[in-house]
Each structure stands twice: as C-alpha cells, then as structure tokens.
Design a protein that fits this description.
alpha/beta, 7-stranded parallel β-sheet, globular
Length: 195
Amino acid sequence: MSTIASLCVFCGSNTGAKPAYTEAAQTLGRLLAGREITLVYGGGKVGLMGTVADAALQAGGKVTGVIPQSLVEKEVEHIGLTELHVVGSMHERKALMADLSDGFIALAGGMGTLDELFEILTWAQLGFHAKPIGLVNTLGYYDHLLAFLQNALAEGFVRDAHLQTLLVEREAERLFQRMYDFAHVRVGNTQMPYV
C-alpha cells in the first residue's frame, strides 16, 4: 500500500443540496489523514473543497492546494494548508495537481469537477499516466453520468477497457482498497496496458 502517498480530490466549490455530500467529503478527508496520504486539491476554502481539506487537517493530515491566481479571491484560497501553490492558469493547476498525485478521486461537484475528472480519464486513456481514478458516488449522484457512459459504450464511442479504469463506489473505504489494488498491479508500468 506504499504505492499511494498522495491523492488528488476533485469536488465542488459548493456544498450541494444535501448534508450527505458534506459528510462524504469529511469522511474522505479523515480517511486520507488516517492513512498518511497527502490530500492534493484545488486550494479553496469554500464548498466541498474546503470541507475535505479541513477534515484532513483536523485529523492531522497533510494538505497541498493548487489554485490559479485568478481564482484566489473567487474560491477564497485556504490559508491553513500544509502547502499552497498559486499558479497562472487552470491548465497549470490541473497539470501540477496531476504531477503531485499518485491517484485521483472525484466527489460530488459541478462543471469544474467533471472537467477535471474527464481530463484525467482521457490522459489515462492516452497512456499519459497509469494512476488509479476513483469516483465516490454519494447518494447515486453520478448515476446518470454512469448511465451516459454506458450508452457511449453501447454506441461505440467508448471502449470497455477504458471505462473500467473509472473505479466507482458509494463509500470511500471500499474505493480506497480498489485503488490500492489497481496501483499495485501497475507499479512500474509507464503506459496503461489497454491503450
């Protein structure tokens, strides 16, 4: 399990309409800290972003934030982090978060979360990385998205091997184990075997 020392979390800058989304973010932050896994995330103190960071910090974990200068005020950068990188653009933000992370997890979120998730999935599909990618499907939030992906598979726009790289669970605990298993199988690989 030493193959994952840091995980990037993509999630909303809002908390969502139901308490379960906040609870899922808190649980994930505490789990990361308890496993001595550094949280890498978007650097804000608002929404689920701030929730997961605060939970990890309160549990004694390390948290690294990456935020573009243009969003410092809008997303209100978190000033209590272990480390904060202020970068010039969203492209730099996503690239640095990817470089700093051994895997990726998406919680509930909106357009930005989907953008980050699909970009990192595409990078895996193209063989740019071989890191595990997980989705915490709280309250079935992503059920419609997963149905869309199944339709894309049926219509011939997505390959099954690529779709299987997205590990989906409703609880973070089970997702962690699947991500560790995924990472263990691919230790030393420089390209995904299904490309």
